[in-house]
Design brief:
Radius of gyration: 25 Å
Helix content: under 10%
CATH topology: Porin
CATH superfamily: monomeric porin ompg
Oligomer: single chain
Length: about 400
Amino acid sequence: MSPPDRRRSPGTVPARHPAAALLTVAALFLLPGASLAEDLRFALSRGGRLTALADTAAKFVGRSLIVTAATAPVSYTFDDEKGTFVREQTIAGELYLERPRSIGKRRWNLAVAYQYYAFSDFDGRDLHHLSDVVPVVGDDRTPLFSIPDASIDLQAHQTTASATYGLTDAIDLNLVVPILHTSLDRTDRVRLIGTPTTFREAGASAASTGIGDILLRGKIALSTTDALRVAAGLALRLPSGDPDDFQGTGSVDVQPSLFASSLLFERPGMLHIEAVLNAGMVFDTDDVDDSEGRWGAGFATTLGRWVALETAVLGRHAVDRLAPPGAFDLPRCLDGPGQCGTPTPARRVGPLPLFGFDGGRPDYFDFAIGTRVNTWRDTVFVFAGALIPLNDEGLRTEPAPAVGIEGSF
């Protein structure tokens, strides 16, 4: 991994890692013994009470970087009478759903894809426009500071190299190696209470490039009739990416899955429509509570033998919360703006979550759309697609586009 690119501006505390910088806002607190007027620190305590929060958040961010399916654009079966492999009539439109058809014995598919992710919301709050005007208080109940303005801009550029090999007519093996460039820019405007300097502005930038988590995927066809095709899959996610840079989960994930499809309509050589269903479970081998269920359902449509389309809805369901209850809570002045705006000890103090963050158990729903085009002799294909968020629970991105090129032979 290349060393992170860090740019420091006046009054800035540099971010050690993108993950730490993102969670800085969630973990804003005064270090014991520090004077607010002299040393207001924006720091994530990696060895303190927020360590578990940092690790959990990194896992959920890493799992948000979805790679495209291992589905090859075409499948081949061996024709005993002709003594050669015969191409199926349709090309695959599935980019995010896995089709149950295998590629064919001793066939290869090599693909390169680029995907872009811009994280924009957490718990329904816009990360670019955060505000919390209720002051944090010290041990003596004195109001210390509030955060009227904060902004977090986290982006990930993911390039994946994928290879699929048909071990038999029924079994496919797939390897995916992602290269990630992650970057984060953070700015904060803090109101200091009872000091000559009323406001203090700070910011940090960090970037890193490295290998993400490597994926090993396998699939075996169980049923091959057009009325119902079924395959079983198993994927291993190896922790080769650095979770502190939002480039991996930091743990081994095991994902058993089932893939099914059913032919809905076909006019040979003109139109082919299938319903496709995927269901699986991602098991975190370090902590089962960090596991999540996944499913997808949609339609794959082929026009002639040149263009294929996919529309689908994808779901992800975390087993546990993003963060423990109260992880974002800080002691606050509850006396109202007039009393809380002075360095006078507060009469009423209570915990409130920073920026209203809760960190509850999220359910993610996305609309997936994709297309694949046969550009040269059933061998070279280009594809494009996007994941469009349908809800705002947990950590969410803006619509995430994907483009790529692949060859089957």
